[in-house]
Amino acid sequence: MLQKSLLVILTLTLIACAGIPPAPVIDRDTSANKPSAPVAKEPASSDWRPNSYTVKKGDTLYAIGLEFGYDYKDIASANNLTPPYPIRVGQKLILPSNGNAEKNVSTTENGVVVTPIKTEPVAETKPTAPAVTPILNQPKAMREPYSIEALNRASPKGTEPAPAVKPSATDTAATKPTESKVTGDDAVTWSWPTNGKVIASFNEASNKGIDIAGTAGQAIVAASGGKVIYSGSDLRGYGKLIIIKHNKTFLSVYAHNNKLLVKEGQQVTAGQKIAEMGNTDSNTVKLHFEIRQQGKSVDPAKYLAQN
């Protein structure tokens, strides 16, 4: 009898213990619950040009401007250089802003580049409005007495599938891929800078443009409208040279002229006479014509009309 009583008491004790919930465990590490601060990413830029350039032997400010597609006066202004724009080997030049360049950068007289400390901007987070679930209250179901007419209204009528719509010829043509070209604000309409036979084609290694034969004094015209950013003979191998900046992406180059008819800073229109053909710094009378895209030489034949 005593053993049965002890067994009953032990059983009741186990049942009581099983009904008590375990004590809650509190995690004191709050780092996992803290939202991570959003990091603002810098916008991607397709401009390959660096923010600065270190001067090498044989460099001139004019040549650096042509290489990177900038007005040499803009480079001089960014580095506090004054005419005749002296530069030295090893000097670090800040290039003008191209969308990813550092701002408020200056160079001291000793060549020390002063750059402000960058601070990482934090993107602002805005609370989102709670989603509203629409409530449908129409149409309302209605009950009506049974009849043959009601049965016919409720039964779905067989419908024929709609015929497939075939794409038209114009739609098919619109989906064909087209040749990739610069569009938008950087688009330029090009025309031939002079008449004559192309005697040397573009070669990235040996010829940065095309050579067009002609006669001395033949008219050279602007291939497109823009601003004259260089007019002179300071670049070795180009003779009397004109460079026109059409937008932030494209420059055009006209070399070996006999006579220059426009000045730096002058705005010109497409087809306007800017020079006369010659043979300065060349063995033959010709026009050496280049198109530069962000300073890089591209084949002018791909941009000029085939006529």
Could you walk me through the main structural features you see in this protein, from its secondary elements to its overall organization?
This protein has 307 residues and is an alpha+beta fold. Among the domains are: 52-114, LysM domain (Membrane-bound Lytic Murein Transglycosylase D, Chain A), CATH 3.10.350.10; 187-302, Glucose Permease (Domain IIA) (Distorted Sandwich), CATH 2.70.70. Helix content is 15%, strand content 20%. It contains five helices and 14 strands. The protein has helices at 2-18, 61-68, 72-78, 148-154, 169-174, and strands spanning 52-54, 92-94, 106-107, 113-114, 198-200, 210-213, 219-221, 226-232, 240-245, 250-260, 267-268, 273-277, 286-293, 296-298. The strands form three sheets. Strands 5, 6, 7, 8, 9, 10, 11, 12, 13 and 14 form a ten-stranded antiparallel beta sheet that branches. A two-stranded antiparallel sheet has the order 1-2. A hairpin with a 5-residue loop joins strand 3 (106-107) and strand 4. Helix 2 crosses helix 3. The longest helix is centred in the N-terminal third of the chain and has 17 residues, at 2-18. The relative contact order is 0.13.
